[in-house]
Amino acid sequence: MTLGELSVKAGKPIDRQVYLDSLNQAKIENCLFDVWKDDELKAYATLKDCGEGKWFVLMFVTHPGKRNRHTITELFGKLITHLESNKALTLVSNVFKVNELSVEFHRKLGFSVTREAPQGYEFTLALDSAEANKLLQWTRKSSRH
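RESULT FIELD:
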């Protein structure tokens, strides 16, 4: 299921213009990260600086047919490099409850649910935690292969 389909199922359809504006703003702020191979976009993510060391994942998108260890670790590597260079303390992400794969993915990466709403969860990862350190080591180890 695509993000568009999941958002409709969750009762929050994506507004195309708002989405494109958000991508453009992230690009202007150097907070758009992407993975390409053979001139094909495989994945991208955007971050937003919320101040006081808190960063928010606005988008994390992987092509369904391109979800593999290499693509994910390359994208995470870029995010982590940016977060480290900006002395980030926490990373926050929102996920629709109907997006069970993403919910499980966040939990596997060490994120904790910090808030719950009828449609979704707010996940938070303290970047100085043991869970974040495991993610950092996994990303660095995988990117060397």
